[in-house]
Amino acid sequence: MEKKKYTSAPLPFMGQKRNWNGEIKTALQEFEDCDVFIDLFGGSGLLSRIVKDARPDASVIFNDFDNYKERLSHVGSTNALIRDIREIVKGVERAKRLDRGRRDAILKRIKEEEKSGFVDYITLSSSLLFSMTYVTCYEEMAKQTLYNKVRLLDYTTDGYLDGIGVVREDYKTLFGRWNFRKNVCFLIDPPYLSTEAGNYTGYWKLKDYLDVLHTLDGTKYFYFTSNKSNIVELCEWMNRTYQVGNPFEGAVMKKIETHMRLNSKYVDVMLYKR
User: Fold this and answer.
1) Which residues pair with 244 in a beta bridge?
2) Contacting residues for 231 by C-beta, under 8 A, at least 6 apart
3) Is 133 helix (H, G, I), strand (E, B) or coil?
4) Could you state, in order of their start, the residue ranges of all structural domains in the chain?
5) CA atoms within 13 A on the CB side of 123
6) Fewer CB within 10 Å: C terminus or N terminus of the chain?
7) 173 near 107, Cβ under 8 Å?
8) Per-residue model confidence as pLDDT tens digits over 42-94
9) CATH assignment of 20-67+168-273?
10) Both ends of the chain: CA-CA distance in Å?
11) SS3 252
12) What is the crossing angle of helices 121-128 and 75-88, to 10°?
């Protein structure tokens, strides 16, 4: 049986880089001297998957600081829970708000699942909440208006992390072990400014974002940001005004316009340097 090719993460995850698949594979042709790729802010692991598929000869390490692997390991129970919810919403038009009776029945079923094992609230969110809205616990789910966006097919995750090394640690520690090797390329996709930052406590602030720039100093990298952060413009201004150097100098920049809900959009940015 032919191995499944993943062009997006198999379970929902905000900020995954599925739109960059082609650009990354093209850019990797310039990194033939690198045989180790370190995904410092692993997220859903999609960057690691894309690189491993394009460079099967290389070692790829996925820093799973969001514990995505745990969600993958419970996909069987997640599918079973969603199948039960699918029965509860039967007869309700897609994307319509659920009445109180169905809502209460779903919350009861989720509560039962929580008592018996793991509940993947992020995956449930994509089936029950308004687009791009995610919760991480029962208490948050119970406050929400629920909609019939229930997935019609089971999730499949087979082989998603095959061939990829998985670690879970602070990105600075991981970077410190590899940053002196010339055959290493870093995949750097930090959380966006003023957003929840996974296992990093609290919000991702400007100081945290600037600290990440140390990983660009003298390294080979792919770096991801957006026009909302203005980090590239800030580095250009700092170098122009204070001559402190610009970590993006000489990097190739690519842009993709990304559309979100309510007709909003932003520009996703990838910079790479070898």
Assistant:
1) none
2) 209, 210, 213, 225
3) coil
4) 20-67+168-273, 73-142
5) 28
6) N
7) no
8) 999 999 999 999 999 999 999 998 999 999 999 999 999 999 999 999 999 99
9) 3.40.50.150
10) 37
11) strand
12) 30
